[in-house]
Amino acid sequence: MDWKTLYKIIKMINWLTLFVLSSVSFFIMSPRFTTGVILGGLIIIANFNVLQHTICGAFSPGESTGSAKMVIIAKCYVRFLALGVIIYLLIADGRVDPVGLAVGLSTVVFSITLLGIHMAMKTKAGEAI
Question: How many angstroms separate the Cα of 95 from the Cα of each of 10, 34, 101, 103?
């Protein structure tokens, strides 16, 4: 399976996972927790999309120089710094529950895990990928 198809599937599963997590949280947990889940999910999905764009741009034909590696590293540090500041501000202001934020930030991990389990089950069943 090529990366573009896989990326589209991961994006779809990301949004479905965020919808399910936030829906369940809405009915079971407090509004602060639900806000944390939603904001954490939105933050990490945006971060995943920026990372994908950075990596694809760096490994495109013609960008195989040593400076491309430095650009990737610099962008990663800037992205991590921005992510840390955003998370700090959300938690320090008390707008979100830290546990809810952590659940939301795990959206992409849940999505990739679900996709891996699905692909493993397809392979075990003998279906072509």
Answer: 29, 11, 10, 15
